[in-house]
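hey so u asked for the seq, here:
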Amino acid sequence: QEALPTGRVVAEFVHTAPVRRTIWLVVERGEVSVCMQHPGYDSDVVVTCSTTVLSGIFSGVDSWDHEVAKGTVQLAGPPRLTRALPKWFSWGLFPEEMRAAEARALAAAP
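ran it, C-alpha cells below
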C-alpha cells in the first residue's frame, strides 16, 4: 500500500451490477472516509465496474491491471490519480492461493 495522496481526493466507485450503487472514498490528510451518499465534493477519479469484478480483485482471484485491460474496470480522471489509485489498497492477502483455488473449482465443474 503506497502513501495516500496528501490533499483531498475523492474516488467515486460506480457499481453497475448486480445492484447499481455508488460509493465514494474521501481521502484527506491520510484518513479515508467511506460515504454511501454524495460527500459534497466533486469526484477526482471515477471507477466503474460490477461489484463481482471488484470483489474478484479484492479477494485476489483477479488483478486490477487485468480487469482494467479487459475493460471490465473503467477509469476516468487525471492519469496521475488513475495510475496511483490501485496502489492505495491492499489487494487479496493470498492472491496465489485464491487463484489456484479458483482454477481447481473451474476444473472440477461439470
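The longest strand covers residues 21-28. Residues 6 and 29 are 6 Å apart (CA to CA).
lmk if thats what u needed
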